[in-house]
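User: Sorry, what's this?
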Amino acid sequence: MSEYTVKSGENLWNICKREFKLSNNTDIANKVNEIAKSNGISNANNIFIGQKINLGTTNPVVNNGEQKNYSNEINQAVANKIKYNNLQTYDDVTRLEASSVSIFGADIKTDEQKNNAYTDYSAKLLLDYYDNDGDGVVSVEEFQAKEQAGGQKANELTFDKLNADAVAMGGDAVQMTDEEKAQYNLIAQRTANLFAQNLDINNNGTIDANELAFLNKYADGLDGSEDGVISASNESVMAKSIMGTNAENKKYNEVINKYLLGQTLTAEEEQILKEAQSTIKKSLSKASGINIEG
């Protein structure tokens, strides 16, 4: 559930329009009535600063308990994305790195249709790939677990490839020590953790479709045009940006990279990491229009 705190100058109309990414007046009015009724608000125009309002979930993965019908392009793009993420051999790792999916159909022409496509793709990907317990909501922990598993598998397959190449060239088999395995796993865990935590822009403990759509839209836009083609390489660049590995602040950048490399942080560095995350989330909030809560 998502609890929203009313701020100065706000009303249910602009809250619902913004938080649920609605543009049609009828849809906004219906959502206002729904939220007012569920919160026991008799007059939708009479809310006050600091009032807590339960918005339900802003993750449009489940619609009234039923899965939404997505376009053929969205269904195929999600199916392809999941296929690329199913790493079994080192060749799969290289295919994933070079992969891309297309989410726009021929009928996608307006900015609103494009934005809806990014959100639909993100919602279905969350539902089909990240939602491990099938409850229609993806927690930060679920998202992190899936990303961590993928990172660890890629590391394992990459090491196996290096080992096989060494043997093929007449060298000795390379054995990874338990300590080295633990280090690689820690790096994958920390990378996934920082990515998931920072992508939870509104701090509500879940990764919703709007947050993931922000990543996908900007990843697509990295090549100069939001054409609905989302490449894995650009997703990787966006993920690094969200984690802050390219932070302009030198102090932030050093601590973030030290953390991601599995090194132990001092108490002072732990505080710097928290400060960096807060700064990054404020920047993401401004860029995405998603308000930070808590």
